[in-house]
Amino acid sequence: MESGGHSMNRVTITAHDVAKDFNRRQIFRDISFSLSLPSSLAITGKNGAGKSTLSKILAGLIGSTRGSITYTLNDKQVGIEKFKHSIGFVSPYLNLYDEFTALENLQLLSRIRATTQQNEGRMKDLLSLVNLWQRRDDLVGTFSSGMKQRLKYAFALLHNPNVLILDEPTSSLDEEGIEFVQRIVRQQKEEGVLIVATNDKEEAGWCAKEIHVGMPER
Ligand SMILES: Nc1ncnc2c1ncn2[C@@H]1O[C@H](COP(=O)(O)OP(=O)(O)O)[C@@H](O)[C@H]1O
Ligand SMILES: [Mg+2]
Fold it and tell me: Do the domain assignments include residue 6?
């Protein structure tokens, strides 16, 4: 059962000597780690070091140039197409549909995922959590960047993901927004896998482990 409370599956996510090049330029290489729940990993590095790129690779949105990522679900190795349903992703590169309302965006997403019956109750809970319930019928195109960032959390959490990947988690958020992110983070790292891509020391400090990306200076 995915809806309602947290009932996490056993998952592992393992990076084997992952490297990424763009147009023959090496962004990073030799990235290896293994995470199983509960655990937390910060991806750190300078601007342009490849934090967002590695988050997208882990979320299965783009491929690596060399090496591989393997995922297991209840001790069985599974492909990313299956594992995707266990991942929640918050990223500046995630786009919402401006021409739909907040609630419609969530409904659309749950229909796209279509793995389990999503209940309207959970959407209400999540929109309330991020303080957008009152604004659920407004077009996302009229939202401020902070409101859009809040909505991304409702998106990411809709299916109770075992693995939550946050790229620049507090981007555009106000104090109250940062507080709910901290609550989400606390719960996720106790019950699931949390991955945070950031160059903020405090955010990196939320995680038990840290991995640095980027190429050494030449
Ligand atoms: N689609 C792309 N095509 C070419 N270069 C890219 C692409 N995406 C990212 N890069 C480059 O990869 C490097 C890492 O980018 P990014 O992962 O966004 O860094 P970070 O998130 O650490 O600031 C940068 O030099 C960036 O310009
Ligand atoms: Mg980035």
Answer: no
